[in-house]
Design goal:
This protein has 244 residues and is α/β, with parallel strands linked by helices. 33% of the residues lie in helices and 25% in strands. It has helices at residues 50-57, 103-113, 118-127, 129-132, 144-156, 174-189, 201-207, 225-230, 233-238, and strands at residues 12-21, 24-34, 39-43, 63-70, 73-74, 88-91, 162-166, 193-197, 210-215, 218-223.
């Protein structure tokens, strides 16, 4: 496991994580870590356990084994409602917006989590200027790309040290996926640690500092985009993707 960045202590550390849905065990030994100002891409086939991992980190599913640390704070058994208040932003698959509420009200919900200062709201709108023009519009009437921007903007309203993104490019045209990737890169430059789960492999490799492969609920391989460009075999083996 290597990185070209200084080895500061991880913001997020997941050790031998196990869990799932009731009696259905999905995670059988997930190990992850990501540092401030780093993007960690998580790749694997459908059903590998990527989304379940993020939900378990957020406390939305119970961990049945292993440990989760945010810095020196253990999250493993912490109630889900407390975790965003520690500076963990989460954009779930499907975006999770309050569709009937306005753009402004969705952002306000994010601001309330940590009583963020008005300047945070302004910085978020600078990242997503189209939302400034849509503040009074119901979230459910936005285009797919605008909804994804709003979901990310709401998560950023808590000023996260760690941002978890689950399939942010889902259903988006290539130009909008590129916007998402650009935004992730800007967040990294601001020191945010980002965990990016995404099926669009080129998008992940275009922004990630490191990549972890998940298979059958286990961490099976670590790499970097440069290493995968030189030897794409892990992509074929763990994702089923050929890059000739």
């Amino acid at each position: 496991m290597t990185s070209t960045r200084p080895q500061a202590p991880p913001i997020l550390r997941v050790e031998a994580l196990r869990g799932g849905y009731g009696a259905v065990r999905v995670l059988q030994g997930i190990d992850l870590e990501v540092r401030a100002g780093e993007v960690l891409g998580v790749l694997g086939r459908n059903g590998a356990g990527k989304t379940t991992t993020l939900k378990t980190v957020m406390g939305l599913l119970p961990a049945t084994g292993g440990r989760i640390w945010l810095g020196d704070i253990e999250l493993t058994s912490m109630p889900a409602h407390r975790i965003p208040g520690l500076g963990v932003g989460y954009v779930p698959q499907g975006r999770g917006l309050f569709r009937e509420l306005s753009v402004a009200d969705n952002l306000r919900m994010g601001m309330l989590v940590r009583a963020s200062a008005p300047a945070v709201h302004e910085r978020v709108l600078e990242l997503f200027p189209v939302l400034r023009e849509r503040l009074r519009q119901a979230a459910g009437t936005l285009s797919g790309g605008e909804q994804q921007m709003l979901a990310m903007a709401r998560a950023l309203c808590i000023e996260p040290a760690l941002l978890l993104l689950d399939e942010p490019g889902e259903g988006l045209q290539p130009s909008l996926v590129a916007r998402v990737v650009e935004t992730v890169a800007r967040l990294r430059d601001r020191g945010v640690a980002v965990v990016l789960v995404e099926q669009k492999v080129d998008a992940v490799l275009g922004v990630a500092d490191r990549v972890v492969f998940v298979e059958n609920g286990r961490t099976v391989h670590w790499s970097t985009p440069a290493e995968l460009a030189a030897d794409p075999e892990p992509l074929r083996r763990h994702v089923g993707l050929r890059r000739d």
